[in-house]
Amino acid sequence: MAAPKQFLDYVDANTDAFIHRLSEAVAIPSISGDAKRREDVMKMGRWLEAELNKFGVKTEQIPLGKQHTEGQVLDLPPAIVGRIGDDPKKKTILIYGHFDVQPAEVSDGWNTEPFQLVVDEKSGRMFGRGSTDDKGPIMGWLNVLEAHHKLGLSLPVNLRFCFEGMEESGSEGLDEFIASEVKKENSRFKGIDAVCISDNYWLNDRTPALTYGLRGLTYFNVIVSGPGADLHSGSFGGSVHEPMTALIALLGKLVTQDGRILIPGVYDGISTADESELELYQKLDFSVADLEAAVGGKIAVSDDKPTVIMARMRNPSLSIHGIEGAFSGVGAKTVIPATVGGKFSIRLVPPQKPDDIRAKVEKYLEAEFAKLNTKCKLKVEYLHGGIPWVADHRHWNYEAAKRATESVYLKSPDFTREGGSIPVTLSFAEHLGVNVLLLPMGRGNDGAHSTNEKLDKSNYIQGTKLLGSYLYEVGEITKA
């Protein structure tokens, strides 16, 4: 059943108000990875809860415990759990999203203030940190709720909500809450039939997508230390073992230029794609040119389309992210850092498991470090991890999303696996035992986590219609 015309018309008529709502959300710098911004994350949660309450959603703030970070003990941002509708004749859908964001500074290379939504009327692009990841999609759900509330329309399904403020920092505390909650007789998650998450993106900027798989994650910090304090290279260079030299050598032993991971055993158990799977990738509306346009350079690891697609979503990958403790300012500084830390992560695919990969990484790093014959010291920190996930894309949950996509965008969606990680996805799938759908709002060139992150106005407004239409299709497709 298509969404009512009055709902669709309401969305169009309230475009400016919906954009204002997104601008209010973007203005709150809810950076979960920065201890100094923890109150802003809390503020964002309170703002979101108040918005939900306006439209009849009953909410609770669920404490998730403490976090030890940067030498401090901080309260984790509470999860915002809500519910609206208890009709036993309707399906119950759990909606998940996160209201925290990645760090952002103008000095990083932003063309605009990152925590101010800037709308380019000519291109229709709305720039701001969190615009697409994940505040835009959450605002889309608020827009759907507002439309039904103001129009006096009953929702076609019962809704449950779980919004968190630590997704960008490994969803700390949330998995434990979900695991304990489902065991309760009067669980807040009781009766849920399926889950919908809108926290990912189309493959390109043309064709909507439905995502049925995510890569997992392991994240490491390799710390190398030597002298008791930073040294002057003129006084001590050449006469001591230098931590930076050892760290660079170690990082250089992790991965090749074409993305091949060098850690023994990492690829164990991963099957080779057969002809039918390769044909599936060949049919996707995605090209090597799309990838290179999205990244702003002709740097794809291959000119073969299936090879690039598999590298992005099917195969594991290792990326080196940065070095802490090293000089990175302008000009010259002749310092030998006393301690440096190199951060890298591995994106995982089935059947890889974070604990197994962690053990292999630590064993390899220690062995390679020993070969350097340095007197520096090594410490490997494991920061966080997530298990990879694949869902049944033939489930009614996906069929409803497919029909909704076709009604809003007038074209069939691509069915994709995604290269990123959303730790809670597998938690919901395993603990609730239900199908989980990833229903993206944004485009493949939105630049989530990057400078000048954006969400196209058309994706925001049409995406709001898509979320609402999905609910109506669920209501129709699951009728007895």
From TrEMBL:
Protein origin, superkingdom: Eukaryota
The protein's name: Uncharacterized protein
